Amino acid sequence: MYKNLIDGQWLAGPASSANLNPSDTRDCIGQYAQADAAQARAAIAAATAAAPAWGLSTPQQRFELLDAVGHEILARKAELGDLLAREEGKTLAEAIGEVARAGQIFKFFAGEALRPAGELLPSVRPGVGVEITREPVGVVGLITPWNFPLAIPAWKVAPALAHGNAVVLKPADLVPGSAWALADILHRAGLPPGVFNLVMGRGAVVGQALLHDERVNAISFTGSVGTGRQVAQACAARMARCQLEMGGKNPFIVLDDVDLALAVNCAVNSGFFSTGQRCTASSRVIVTEGIHDRFVAAMVERMRGLKVGDARKPGTDIGPVVDARQLEQDLAYIDIGRQEGATLAAGGQALACNEDGAPGHYLQPALFTDTTPGMRINREEIFGPVVSVQRAKSYEDALALANDTPFGLAAGIATSSLKHATHFKRHAQAGMVMVNLPTAGVDYHVPFGGRKGSSLGPREQGRHAAEFYTTVKTGYTLA
Question: What DSSP line would sit under 110-155, residue for residue?
Fold first, then answer.
């Protein structure tokens, strides 16, 4: 039994849930506590009591603690990566990479604790000085998704603590194991009681308690668009600050002048790796006419060589879908694509078990061709290994198709033209733009976020995280 961490104490919940391995649903990782609203409120009370002292802690104290956390995560990346792959289903190599990123995030924000920004300005009035400083927001509620069960909690928790806030973390119900491991590391690192609290449980219970409690000064949420809208409305109603990272329907343009192998590698990585369960995945590939048929043929050939199987076994390229409900959603969209008239060029079949006979949530990656912009498979986020190809007449046509979406998180282009690459970086309506690279995969020290329906509020990661986790104070002094 893995318990919640509230005010420095490990506490059982009134209920628990089994954490199952999607590669082998007979494998139960453990029973994880499910908090009720009362426990959520207790965690908020603990954070409220701890916030003032932690907000006045020294930069050195925060640096040492966060650096120690990052050091332990990196030292245990093989072990933690195995846990992550086991509970979420991404391949072991991807899982270990995610753990390493989490450790690097904590080390980066350890350094940020020593680099608080400020300004000294002369007033327009003689003899008056102006000091501009940043202070912690107070109590921050963090609601994280299942697709990056360690990296996303890390990139929210680390800046929150580095800038002096107290935290209540509510991880995704599907993948509590990685968040629990992070909480255990933070607890043993010596955080004062109440500064960090882990409250596992259902969003309808724990999430709602965080949203509507006046003591929670800010909410950072990553998840679906529908839930994100509810978070924004709840925060606006009580004037709490809010940061949202939501969906994506990211385009990847392939121009006639590109190296075909490079384009295929980028498209396969962006669309299918991590089982397509990344908000930055490219689920729309837009290909100009001169290379379209060769690109599709090369994609189909490459997909034949992709091995779908147990996430933790060597040689696996694509692990299982995270759970049965997500698999049903993926298959429903594959049926929708067929009904809309798209051609299923490759894949799209569910597999009841892996090559060893273990039952799991397996799906052959799917590639649709002959698609049009209005099709639902080109408009709605599927969040699975399903990619559609659209044919474009020219670069200008491809750019228009790429921007024809209510989302704006990431966008990519494969081209050898400096002119088109430069133009695309300026005119793609997305928060992150990649040239000759997969759209999925970003550095830990630079801002992450999008526009349109993908994001709301300040960026995450890097120095820009201070915009959300701190508030600006202007002080005047008469000499």
Answer: HHHHT----EEEE-SSTTEEEEEEEEE-SEEEEE--SSSTTHHHHH
